């Protein structure tokens, strides 16, 4: 799959933007703050319904405007497809495919991207919520129907938490919380599916991560991934969420039925603590993925360079996993401001790892940071305006001074 043309209206700092893209590598060059990342962010949003920079859609709409529009003309096996998304400040977002209306959550069925940016270092060094979002985004890209499951789980979780808080505030007795049992069953049903899917995708991702890490880092270190589940913890009410080390509750080889049974048992164990605290203490919303490098947790033990290589390997592994199981061609690989963070050796290794993908989009502040084999089609960005460079030399832009 490739993007042939990208069109933006009132997206970020672009009043309008029209840019033609080519198969293979496409390099966007410009000083910091000119709008390079905004271009690739728009395509990432089409495929994931989320931004790698902000959590609020409103930030994507140009200041003073009511809506932003992203249009992409895609091509696969000689067939073209026009996908469009309108982000609205005061109403629901709208989407179209070939001018026919669809639900926005259906967009990931039509476009697949894997984006790596400096922010992804948080996958290794950050909080469990970052790793949960990473795994769930991969699941959504591989099986878009799961986006609905995630949404339903969040809705049920919110309802259950509201009931627990109400019970705590009013002092309701256990016998009066019969409604809680109804929410429990729905939570278990959806949660078991999510946990089972996470186990499967992490197991499938592991070999690709090992191969990608060795390709990028050039070392024989052994990266591994394990899902850590709160429903398997003996004391989940004392486990930390989004801070500290995860509890040693790795769930491997468990079926969906096994997980559902474990979830029910965990809810029984923490029932009193949940009523006291007014919050759901177990479930996939409190799980983590443990990354190890040579048996040691990468978080806290890996060096800066090792953490970078691990994060990059995770994203390259996602691309390989998606291309191995795709009927629409390769995912579009996006490297946002990555090469400046790598030494010369790792730059070359990364170029070798991505050069055979159908389309790669790269942003850089300095032209010379990017290996020559990835500069065939270069576009210069200046203050929200796009200028196609006639030659790679014409695209060279000096590095911006620190703000």
Automatic annotation (TrEMBL):
Keywords: ATP-binding, Cytoplasm, DNA damage, DNA repair, DNA replication, DNA-binding, Nucleotide-binding, SOS response
InterPro entries: DNA-binding_RecF (IPR001238), DNA-binding_RecF_CS (IPR018078), P-loop_NTPase (IPR027417), RecF/RecN/SMC_N (IPR003395), RecF_2 (IPR042174)
Function: The RecF protein is involved in DNA metabolism; it is required for DNA replication and normal SOS inducibility. RecF binds preferentially to single-stranded, linear DNA. It also seems to bind ATP.
Positions with a binding annotation for ATP: 30-37
Location within or outside the cell: Cytoplasm
Record gene name: recF
Family of this protein: Belongs to the RecF family.
Location of region: Disordered: 234-253
Lineage: Bacteria, Bacillati, Actinomycetota, Actinomycetes, Micrococcales
Pfam families per the UniProt record, alphabetical: SMC_N
Protein's name according to its UniProt entry: DNA replication and repair protein RecF
RecF/RecN/SMC N-terminal domain ranges (all copies): 3-364
